[in-house]
């Protein structure tokens, strides 16, 4: 803790070091804390740059992916702030339950702060209990080091109280930055659960308005719902392309694109996605595929996969699989369900928002979450998935709880599942590689068997 | 939560019982409660009572709004939004959702049927009196294109005096309508439905907040519905007349130029208009005739089908449903989600963003399916604008 206190007393230091770093000034920092910071920055940017390189080197990246890579580069390697006008305030959000629409409606810019940094994780390891999930550790690590502008410039952080870790994280963040704890209902089967969330959102509005000084109006809310709706419209088109067999785009790239959504204004993001969609349409026409016919089609689900912790999707695609779908909260889920406005009044808009962020949400933090199984089954059917990788971050209990039911259900379908537990470090990478490789070989073998048996059947019939 | 539930039960259950009791009492003496009486000398305009009802309904709505504003203003959370929630300010609406499609068809059919059931004979010169639809299009209006069997249903004791052929026509057409149309009548043909949808659309246009019902409130409506059904079928046997409390009598004959004195029905119509302004299809939720048709939903040909795997339980259909049918989104096993309450309005399918998750079928043929593409089709305009913008920018760059 001494490290953080030290830093908090010297906010100007932050600036100095950044300037030094940017100017490639080699004059060595003096105090131990500064040296530690410098080391931290070097390491964090190096790791991010490495994964970004691997991402870009993964064959088959469309040209239109470039802006998304650039955003990740800006945020994680160059440690820049999000692209915005000078007086736009940033509101940090976590999870998928904070309505971005409300933040845009008051004129602020939402930034999703869930983190996947290995280096920050190592710092955070000392700040939170050992069994806490690595996501929290990484967030607290960045918070403590004060090197990421997106964390430091936040005018307000909105933390939905989803799992236990997020709850305690909200408390810890509150001691450092203005934080608002957004209560999410624990269940969603009864009407009052959703209605409770409407109330919560109404309570969130004054907090957001205090950040920018702008009041929310019907007009601004309707506009922001439309802006998000347009992003979701582009997303739905993108999803159609993802369903194509053979694949038109690698799943790792699709996940990077969804990660970039966290740091881009929604209009810009949907514009870029529109370009990507156009390119994919061209690819479809030219029959320019990124996968071969018999490549195993894998889907990833479970704990969030956040840049730079994209080792598992990378491993899947580097060992011969093709990632066709993801059911994770940093992936497709955050933009999949549209806001369905059924009542044109202000309250109607608020209700539709509350509805969209609770009822269809497949986050396992809800008491009853059987719909996630159905969603995964539907995705398996839509994307013709042959195997499911169930990603569990160490300490992410809620996802681990749901593994058993999923395994049983998919067992009935005959779709193999592998549970992959990992942490925010690179120590387990070889072990993961072996397991995933074996899994993919298994699918290939299974595929071959079915092909042979089919062939035999047709021969017998013939 | 449990405490508040108990409290609510303490308030709601007696209220519902009182409403049912008052309804029964009032209906017995409905003939004595005069709303507007035409003299025997045939003076006055037929439309006058309708205008009075409209005026009183508007006054009632304004009063309700004023009252709610007063209540909301003192609320610690909601007080801040009192103005925004009852806003009459012009402003953009959410444009991303589909504007035309199945719902346009429904509106056209509803308007067509509204006029056919009021002026049909005048236009075509001839009606089809032999067919009797179970519908609240008042049969006192003789200009209807198709007769309504609601009068016979409300006066079942008169069946005794009828000839066999008349009874046959009545029962036959009733059964036929239940099988072929079912509550499709409610969603597409009923003039009362159109009036309620119009008041609802007025509210949407003014962007005034409505009343959002939840499952608890819907369940409280059930006793009222049953009471009304009992009154509808049984009042004639105890010497009453359901027409005296039926709100449908106020519209159809008056518009066609028939002078009908109104009793309790005039007040009922005011309640229906105010109710449907704040709660979509308020009367349909307690309509005895519709429920009677709905009871035969198992043999009806119009059905709502669901693909339980494709459903994400987003609840959009439930939010959109004017009848508050929750099973439509919680159902995970049956492929058929038609219930007695469903009025086949198609709102759930219109608002469903999942491909083929919901569909309406007629005799097994799915003629209207949910689709994400059409659901989001409102965004196509935006996309075109974006394309133009990009092209312009590229041109500028190349120059």
TrEMBL record, chain A:
The protein's organism comes out as Acetobacterium wieringae
Q: Where is the composition biased (Polar residues)?
A: 17-33
What's the cofactor?
A: [4Fe-4S] cluster
Q: Which GO terms describe its molecular function?
A: hydro-lyase activity; iron-sulfur cluster binding
Iron as UniProt keyword: yes
Which major enzyme category is it?
lyase
What name has this protein been given in UniProt?
Answer: R-phenyllactate dehydratase beta subunit
Q: Does the keyword Repressor feature in the UniProt annotation? A: no
> What family is this protein classified in?
Belongs to the FldB/FldC dehydratase alpha/beta subunit family.
Q: What are the protein's UniProt keywords?
A: Iron, Iron-sulfur, Lyase, Metal-binding
Q: What is its EC number?
A: 4.2.1.-
UniProtKB/TrEMBL annotation, chain B:
Q: Which PROSITE patterns has this protein been placed in?
A: 4FE4S_FER_1, 4FE4S_FER_2
One Pfam family recorded for the sequence: Fer4_5
**In the UniProt record, does the keyword Repressor occur?**
no
What GO molecular function terms would the record report? 4 iron, 4 sulfur cluster binding; metal ion binding
Q: Which InterPro entries match?
A: 4Fe4S_Fe-S-bd (IPR017896), 4Fe4S_Fe_S_CS (IPR017900), Electron_Trans/Redox (IPR051684)
Question: So which domain of life are we looking at?
Answer: Bacteria
Q: Which residues cross the membrane?
A: 12-38, 44-67, 107-125, 167-190, 226-250, 256-278
Entry keyword rRNA-binding: no
Q: Which UniProt keywords apply?
A: 4Fe-4S, Electron transport, Iron, Iron-sulfur, Membrane, Metal-binding, Transmembrane, Transmembrane helix, Transport
Cellular component GO terms, alphabetically? plasma membrane
Q: Tell me where in this chain the 4Fe-4S ferredoxin-type domain is found.
A: 302-331, 333-363
Q: Give the protein name, as stated in the record.
A: Putative electron transport protein YccM
Q: Which organism is it from?
A: Acetobacterium wieringae
């Amino acid at each position: 803790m001494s490290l953080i206190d030290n830093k908090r007393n010297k906010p100007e230091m932050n600036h100095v070091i950044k300037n030094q770093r940017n100017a490639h000034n080699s004059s060595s920092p003096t105090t131990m804390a500064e040296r530690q910071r410098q080391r931290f920055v070097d390491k964090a940017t190096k790791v991010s740059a490495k994964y970004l390189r691997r991402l870009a080197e993964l064959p088959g990246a469309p040209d239109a992916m470039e802006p998304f890579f650039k955003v990740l580069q800006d945020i994680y390697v160059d440690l820049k702030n999000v692209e915005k006008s000078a007086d736009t305030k940033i509101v940090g959000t976590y999870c998928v339950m904070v309505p971005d629409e409300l933040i845009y409606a008051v004129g602020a810019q939402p930034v999703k702060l869930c983190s996947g940094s290995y280096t920050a994780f190592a710092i955070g390891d000392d700040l939170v209990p050992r069994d806490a999930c690595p996501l929290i550790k990484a967030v607290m690590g960045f918070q403590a080091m004060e090197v990421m502008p997106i964390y430091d410039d936040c005018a307000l952080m909105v933390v939905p109280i989803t799992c236990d870790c997020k709850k305690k994280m909200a408390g810890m963040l509150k001691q450092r930055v203005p934080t608002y704890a957004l209560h999410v209902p624990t269940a969603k089967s009864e009407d009052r659960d959703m209605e409770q969330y409407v109330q919560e959102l109404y309570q969130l509005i004054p907090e957001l308005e205090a950040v920018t000084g702008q009041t929310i109006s019907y007009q601004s809310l309707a506009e922001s719902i439309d802006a998000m709706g347009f992003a979701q419209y582009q997303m739905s088109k993108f999803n159609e392309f993802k369903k194509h067999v053979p694949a038109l785009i690698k799943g790792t790239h699709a996940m990077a694109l969804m990660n970039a959504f966290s740091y881009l204004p929604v209009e810009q993001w949907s514009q870029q996605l529109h370009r990507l969609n156009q390119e994919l349409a061209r690819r479809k026409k030219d029959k320019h595929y990124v996968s071969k016919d018999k490549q195993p089609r894998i889907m990833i689900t479970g704990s969030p996969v956040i840049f730079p912790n994209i080792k598992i999707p990378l491993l899947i695609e580097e060992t011969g699989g093709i990632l066709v779908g993801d059911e994770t909260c940093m992936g497709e889920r955050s933009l999949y369900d549209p806001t369905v406005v059924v009542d044109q009044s202000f309250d109607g808009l608020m209700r539709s928002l509350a509805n969209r962020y609770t009822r269809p949400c497949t986050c396992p933090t809800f008491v009853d979450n059987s719909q996630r199984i159905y969603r995964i089954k539907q995705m398996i059917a839509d994307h013709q998935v042959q195997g499911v990788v169930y990603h569990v971050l160490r300490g992410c209990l809620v996802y681990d709880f749901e593994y058993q039911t999923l395994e049983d259900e998919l067992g009935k379908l005959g779709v193999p599942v592998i549970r992959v537990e990992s942490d925010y470090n690179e120590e387990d990478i070889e072990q993961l590689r072996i397991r995933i490789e074996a899994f993919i070989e298994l699918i290939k073998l299974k595929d071959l068997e079915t092909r042979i048996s089919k062939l035999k059947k047709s021969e017998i019939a013939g | 939560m449990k405490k508040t539930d108990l409290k609510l039960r303490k308030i709601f259950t007696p209220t519902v019982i009182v409403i049912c009791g008052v309804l029964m009492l009032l209906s017995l003496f409905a003939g004595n409660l005069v709303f507007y009486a035409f003299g025997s000398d045939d003076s006055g305009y037929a439309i006058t009572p309708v205008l009075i009802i409209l005026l009183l309904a508007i006054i009632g709505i304004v009063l309700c709004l004023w009252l709610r504003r007063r209540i909301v203003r003192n609320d610690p959370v909601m007080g801040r939004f009192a103005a925004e929630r009852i806003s009459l300010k012009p402003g953009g609406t959410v444009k991303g959702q589909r504007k035309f499609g199945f719902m346009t068809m429904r509106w056209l059919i509803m308007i067509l049927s509204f006029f056919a059931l009021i002026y049909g004979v005048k236009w075509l010169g001839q009606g089809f009196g032999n067919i009797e639809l179970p519908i609240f299009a008042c049969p006192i209006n003789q200009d209807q294109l198709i007769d309504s069997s609601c009068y016979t249903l409300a006066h079942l004791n008169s069946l005794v005096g009828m000839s066999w052929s008349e009874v046959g026509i009545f029962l036959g057409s009733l059964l036929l309508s239940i099988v072929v149309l079912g509550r499709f009548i409610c969603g597409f043909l009923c003039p009362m439905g159109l009036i309620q949808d119009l008041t609802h659309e007025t509210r949407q246009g003014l962007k005034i907040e409505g009343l959002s019902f939840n499952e608890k409130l819907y369940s409280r409506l059930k006793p009222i519905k049953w009471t009304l059904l009992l009154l509808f079928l049984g009042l004639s046997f105890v010497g009453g007349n359901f027409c005296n409390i039926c709100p449908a009598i106020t519209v159809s004959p008056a518009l066609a130029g028939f002078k009908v004195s109104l009793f309790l029905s005039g007040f009922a119509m005011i309640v229906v208009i105010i109710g449907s302004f704040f709660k979509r299809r308020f009367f349909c939720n307690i309509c005895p005739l519709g429920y009677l048709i709905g009871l035969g939903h198992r043999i009806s040909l119009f059905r709502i089908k669901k693909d339980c795997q494709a459903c994400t339980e987003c609840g959009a259909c439930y939010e959109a449903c004017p009848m508050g049918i929750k099973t439509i989104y919680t159902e995970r096993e049956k492929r058929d989600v038609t219930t007695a309450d469903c009025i086949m309005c198609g709102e759930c399918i219109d608002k469903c963003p999942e491909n083929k998750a919901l569909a309406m079928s007629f005799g097994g043929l799915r003629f209207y399916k949910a689709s994400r593409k059409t659901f989001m089709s409102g965004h196509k305009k935006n996309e075109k604008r974006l394309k133009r913008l990009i092209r312009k920018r590229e041109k500028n760059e190349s120059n």
